[in-house]
Design a protein that fits this description.
The protein has 410 residues and is mainly α. The chain contains 14 helices and no strands. The protein is globular.
């Protein structure tokens, strides 16, 4: 087989176009389709007279859809190239979000948001797989971090746009929010179809990063002894992350409005700062994990998240809330960036896509359980204090579990 040429030092590599386009895709499938929901909850809750637990169930429906897509995405990606899989899924997301904006009752919304969740899974998995294809190990964490930074841009946009639409459209502001954000997703679907490429060889290139002598182990299709147990441990960590970060991400804006007495615009400003800090979370921690190792990187991120959740749960006043939001933003997208790199390091390039799909099942399970349970607890207690404290306890345990992971084989 003819070897693809390497670029001379200093030349621009198309891999960074893949990263930028992937960032736009994640901006849509998570930043807008999922994290904007936090800003839309107060308006939806008032407009449709929905209780805390029902708002939690809507969020859970999204995660159930996401989990369903994760179960079939790896096999589907073998038939439908990542480029087209992501682009089509973004169209589904855009249409589903616009449909929610037209709904007037709970059950159509829950069904459509489940469809949006499926679209998110069918977008996320191929985009993160493309990062693995286009970047070698030494650059993979940084590249995944840049791609995941798109989530933060979505949070920033929602933090400013949704309150502005509420001021313009009043009680129907949340409807306008779904419609506008859905239209943005449709536009980005066109960009993804035009710019994504499935493999560096498609454009006559090698992956980004220093070429080293590859170990034959990287290309083995069979499992090595202990790989199943290691994959399960990574999955458990991803499950804890999925459950805890979406409890906070789903309900913190509602907490600021209902429990701290902040205006929606003020809460939106704080939420946009979460987006600002999160822009650097995947990049910073992903790059750091390239240097200090995946297990130390994961342990550090879980420690930061523990502090964020405990500060929210302990009701440490506005100063504590501010620190909590900042810490959450700094670490929120770091775990996916490190996980995307870790599966390639631990299990080899040939199994990276399937392994990432497998641990994403755990991630999806966590997201299904977390918001639903938090909503039920909040309805019973009248506050989100207990869910945040539980989240902090779980991430503290996860930090220890991560630190005890083995080092990847060289």
């Amino acid at each position: 087989m003819t070897k693809a040429p390497s670029l001379p030092p200093g030349r621009f590599h198309y891999g960074w176009v893949i990263v930028a386009t992937s960032a736009l895709g994640l901006f849509s499938c998570f930043g807008l389709a999922r994290y904007a929901y936090s800003m839309l909850i107060p308006g939806m809750q008032a407009g449709l007279a929905l209780s805390y637990d029902r708002m939690g169930f809507i969020g859970t429906a999204n995660f159930v859809g996401y989990l369903a897509s994760v179960l079939v995405a790896p096999k589907l990606m073998g038939r439908l190239a990542p480029r087209w899989m992501a682009a089509i899924a973004l169209v589904v997301i855009g249409l589903g979000m616009m449909g929610i904006g037209l709904c007037h009752s709970f059950f159509p919304i829950i069904a459509l948001y489940a469809v949006v969740g499926m679209g998110s899974g069918f977008t996320n998995i191929p985009l993160m797989a493309l990062v693995t294809f286009w970047f070698r190990s030494e650059q993979r964490g940084k590249a995944a971090g840049f791609a995941i930074a798109g989530n933060g841009i979505g949070i920033i946009l929602a933090g400013f746009l949704v309150p502005a639409l509420n001021r313009s459209f009043g009680a129907d502001g949340w409807r306008a929010g779904w419609m506008v954000l859905g239209a943005v997703c449709l536009g980005i679907a066109c960009v993804a179809a035009a710019l994504l490429r499935n493999h560096p060889a498609d454009v006559g290139l090698e992956p980004v990063g220093r070429l080293v002598d590859a170990s034959p182990e990287q290309f083995l299709h069979r499992e090595r002894k202990g790989d199943g147990r290691l994959l399960f441990r990574l999955g458990l960590l991803y499950l804890v992350f999925g459950a805890t970060f979406m409890v906070y991400g789903t309900f913190i804006v509602t907490t600021m409005v209902r429990e701290y007495g902040l205006s929606e615009a003020r809460a939106g400003l704080y939420w946009s700062w979460v987006g600002f800090f999160s822009f650097f979370s995947g990049i910073g921690f992903g790059t750091l994990s390239d240097r200090i190792g995946r297990r130390r990187g994961l342990a550090l991120v879980f420690t930061v998240q523990t502090a964020a959740y405990l500060l929210a749960g302990l009701k440490a006043g506005m100063l504590g809330l501010t620190f909590s939001l900042g810490l959450y933003g700094c670490a929120v997208f770091a775990i996916p960036a490190i996980m995307a790199a870790a599966v390639g390091d631990y299990l080899g390039l040939q199994r990276a896509s399937a392994a990432f799909g497998t641990i994403t099942i755990f991630f999806g399970l966590g997201q299904v359980v977390g918001p639903a349970v938090a909503g039920i607890i909040a309805k019973a207690t009248g506050a989100f204090t207990t869910p945040y404290l539980i989240a902090g306890t779980l991430t503290a345990v996860a930090a220890v579990m991560a630190f005890l992971l083995p080092e990847p084989a060289k």
